[in-house]
Amino acid sequence: MPTFRQLEYLVAIADAQNFRRAAAAVHVSQPTLSQQLRVLETELGITLVERQLAGAQLTPIGRDIADRARKLLVERQDICDLASSSRDSAVGTIRFGVTPTLGPYLLPGVIADLTRDHPGLRLYIREGIPDEQTLELARGKLDMILGPLPIHGDALSIEPLFREDLVLVASPLHRLAQRSQVTAEDLRGAEVLSLDPRHHLHRQGTILCERYGMVLLRDYEGTSLDSLRQMAATGLGLAILPKLYMCSEVGGDAGIRILRPDGWNGHRMIAASWRENAANGALYAMIAARVSDSATRIMDACR
């Protein structure tokens, strides 16, 4: 009979496609992982993994079994969470995924409030690309994620939390910053900086550029909101920045000018998500409500 540990090793190989990386992911030595997979293959009487010089690939039946094993492992974790929640609904470590265009400017206050009110609760924060974190959530590697809509995934609870304005900024020396009033027509042809295409903010920037006739620069993609603001301050182009960043201590309008074009309607919707029927669903909903309240307070304070 396969053990959960053997199934965990098989799923690790499916994800990493490499024995060394898979062993590191499950915190065992490579020989241990390899030996246990051979035991699993012997017990089942089939070949699960094709061992290659450049890595490891699952056989077709291996992929099918790994998919089912992944679901079993997620269910096992949910059982453990259910037992924990029956003892204390606000104790333990929550694996919390968040986009880097949001987390650093919103979560510090949320974490401080949760630590004060629920001292047994811990948030293990992991920043990452929203689409990749949605996949990690479905696979049970994260418990909860926070990011822009849309969030796509099967068997997920998605809770819209708040609307965040997207602010258009420029160098004080930019031609548009010199005008007392900026119209939508004035934006036509203006060059706009953005993050790399994996980020939702890039996609939203693309939509806004198409809407207002602006040009999204492809040669100067920033690696962070700070880099976008700094490049905009040098006059390299306009930048579209989230309001929570602009309201934060590290953000703000130093070195840049906020443009308020007539009819500007840049915004994004932020939501939280967790697996449907998760044992700690009520706890995740409570955390989501804290996030929403904190965001509202921050944005109201810097109108």
Brief descriptors of the model:
Arc Repressor Mutant, subunit A, D-Maltodextrin-Binding Protein, domain 2, 3 domains, 9-stranded mixed β-sheet, 45% helix, 24% strand, elongated
Description:
The protein is an alpha/beta fold. It has three domains: 80 residues, Winged helix-like DNA-binding domain superfamily/Winged helix DNA-binding domain (Arc Repressor Mutant, subunit A, Orthogonal Bundle), CATH 1.10.10.10; 95 residues, Periplasmic binding protein-like II (D-Maltodextrin-Binding Protein, domain 2, 3-Layer(aba) Sandwich), CATH 3.40.190; 104 residues, Periplasmic binding protein-like II (D-Maltodextrin-Binding Protein, domain 2), CATH 3.40.190. The protein has ten helices and eleven strands. Strands 3, 4, 5, 6, 7, 8, 9, 10 and 11 form a nine-stranded mixed beta sheet that branches. A two-stranded antiparallel sheet has the order 1-2. The protein is elongated and about 75 Å long. The mean pLDDT is 89.
